[in-house]
Write a structure and sequence with these properties.
There is one protein chain. The chain is an alpha+beta fold. It is built from four helices and five strands; from the N terminus they run βββαββααα. It has two domains: about 80 residues, no CATH class; about 35 residues. It is globular.
Length: about 110
């Protein structure tokens, strides 16, 4: 699952043979923000220069589910991209906007 928030971008997967989930990110600070704000039980953030997502950490599904509830309850903005620009930077908002534009292609297709 991809999770794009006003404090970071994450890819969440369950690696074969693991019971925990792996939360991956391209930016270390995103995982640090996730831990600080919502997920204190997030394991050590590991860095790899040979994987698609440079940073990753493990967490139990139960801990992530609890954190996701808190994340949802903290939504107070009426425009996501504006909130990203305010909290993370206009550069980050611009990157997210490009993703948003690419996803418009889904509207005209029945996949």
């Amino acid at each position: 699952m991809w999770l794009i928030t006003n404090f970071g971008f994450f890819s969440i997967v369950q690696k074969r043979g693991d019971t925990d989930l792996t939360i991956r990110s391209r930016v270390k600070r995103d995982l640090e923000s996730l831990r600080e704000k919502y997920l204190p039980g997030l394991d050590e953030i590991k860095k790899s220069d040979v994987t698609d997502y440079r940073y990753r950490a493990k967490v139990s599904p139960a801990d992530l589910a609890e954190a996701m509830g808190k994340i949802v309850r903290d939504i107070t903005y009426d425009n996501f991209k504006n909130c990203v620009a305010e909290k993370q930077s206009s550069k980050r908002e611009h990157i997210y906007h490009k993703v948003w534009e690419d996803l418009i292609a889904l509207e005209d297709n029945d996949f």
